[in-house]
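ingest -> validate -> predict -> emit
validate: passed (alphabet ok, no gaps, 409 aa)
predict: started
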Amino acid sequence: MRRLPARKTRLALPAAFALTGSLIAVTPVTANAAEPAQGNCKTFDDPQYNGWTTYEELGPKLRAIESTSNGRVRVDVVGRTQQGRELYAARVGTGRRVLLVQSAIHGNERTGTEALLGILKKLGSGGDPTTKRALQGITLVAMPMVNPDGGEINRRANVISWDQVTATYPQLAGAPRAWYHSLRGDGIELPGFDLNRDFNPDLDYVPSAGDLPGRQVDAGFFLSPESRAIRDVYVGLKQEFGKVDAAVDLHHMGPCDPLTGGPQDGKPISVSLDYPPLGVNDGAAYKEKWPLLDQDASRRHALAVANGIRASYGSQSPLAAIGRYYHPDDREYAGQGRSAFAMNGSATVLFEVRGQQDDLGQKFKGMLARSVQTGVESLIDSMATGAVDNLEGDDFFGLPDYGWDTTAD
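emit:
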């Protein structure tokens, strides 16, 4: 790949990034044989998924969008992974409302990457009234692939050993490993983190041995360079604008529901949406320390996504099959980025797209990427017009409930 120049970021990041490892040669793996399909939620044995944008392709695609945008889109390298791969952020729009969207924090969940490339291309070159309204009303910062190391081997986790963590943070030597660090993942004998547990609402948090190993319900520790890069982009925007109005996290859910025998009892659902999972009584335990937490705002933004998708495709289209992600009252993940950013005053929305590329291959890539792109574009327009402020957050609960495994996102 043509190496992109590591130029100074224009996102006002507060901290420099250090490269603390070298590239590790890893052989990509193919998917294992799928489990038997449940309901009419079909998966595929060893599917082809080579049509998805790779890390090697991402940089050139972003630079091409930047080049043809005539200054609208700006692309920066905002960090590096443990293995030395660059982390990109693309910024477009001049509005005072700020939307941060990140994708592929789980390396085998890439529909959001395709959707964000489509959005950036459209905003970079479009001249229609909706595009003009978005550019004037919103500042969008997109991070299309925040776990490229995991993506290279088609797995959920990143790649970093505990010794590499303690080399960065010597104060952790002798402490137990964080609960979300594993020695292997998805059948691959390489250690790494579930990065979507590595966030803390204290954006200045410094890892402490006394806090380890932590628990599922606790905040994370910013132990990986990828989570720190996302955090620093968020902090830079907060310093520049005073607030990040909304943050969106693009994921995949599995294609079949183990709780009910299939999505919606065998009826496929395209996208499930969620607000921050912060325990009982709508996160009441967090509100004294984090008074900016506004769960209703998150639900309004999620509802804007759902309304926009359904309005775009009509009730009979499979693209309009939108639901609520499984969210019992006691579900608590303070270490997820969407939870940490919500406690800092951002409305946050989780997208969970049906299936992963190693389950469904290329078969549904176009359809699912379109639904995600439409959903994010709907949110952009609703924020640009202010319509999101007039929604009723409780209407979010009127969406059908998708009973999925609560450990997946």
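The longest strand covers residues 246-253.
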